[in-house]
Amino acid sequence: MDRAAPPVTRFAPSPNGRLHLGHALSAIVAHDIAKARGGRFLLRIEDIDGPRSRPELADEFRRDLAWLGLEWEEVPAQSTRLARYAAAAEALRQRGLLYPCTCTRSEIEAAGALPGADGLIYPGTCKHRAPDPARPAAWRLDSDKAVTATGPLVWEDALAGPQRVDLSGLGDVVLVRKDLPASYHLAVTLDDAADGVTLVTRGADLFAASHVHRTLQALLGLPVPRWHHHPLLLGDDGEKLAKRRGSPALAERRERGEDGGVLAQQLRMQLLALGT
Ligand code: GLU
Ligand code: ZN
Which atom of ligand 1 is nearest to the CA of 202? Predict the structure, then answer.
């Protein structure tokens, strides 16, 4: 991308839980970079998490962002784009780059999978066997074939600098879930391209995913953005402030009458302290 051009950034929350401080930080990073450079800040609701998705949370998210003092443009939610995901998956499947996987989580654990950058690395059980047609199948990216197809690839993170694509951190990821025509990786890559995002901002916990997304861009002929993985806020115990660990929801603080603008300023100070 043209570095001098005003960036298009986005915040892409999934409505499967309330937003917490870490989300606020992500939204502020994306918002502030866009505003400072005359760009655009997009909101995209990533609502394809099947049964865990609670569409009513999207309204709460919009109230939270407004409370923080942010302004955004909203782009279509993922649930409106399923046909596009299915078409891209089909194109990859036809090129032999995907294989069906019928494994359950417990089968993957039992097969001695090793931990990777985001959970267990799939041990490849289904790669060389015919799938049992009676069992539901997910479709995984064959990372060896993908690397052969793309050749060496690079991408750039605004904070960490140039990166060489290395798929070993995540292994053969799922691109089509058993219950959905996409996974996070496929949907987010297609959406960022469709929405014209030129600077993908998100937490450093998703750093390894960007290697997969860069590969998908090459395989699908999509434009290549830059990335900005911001450091994560840590709780007093040094643990990541994840919603599952009970950090207070933004909506709770908002409903208690806390000033969102002040909170946003405090988060900006923390960002400075984190060195971004
Ligand atoms: N929906 C994803 C999440 O909430 C977004 C990740 C991303 O920004 O790529 O974790
Ligand atoms: Zn499998």
Answer: 8
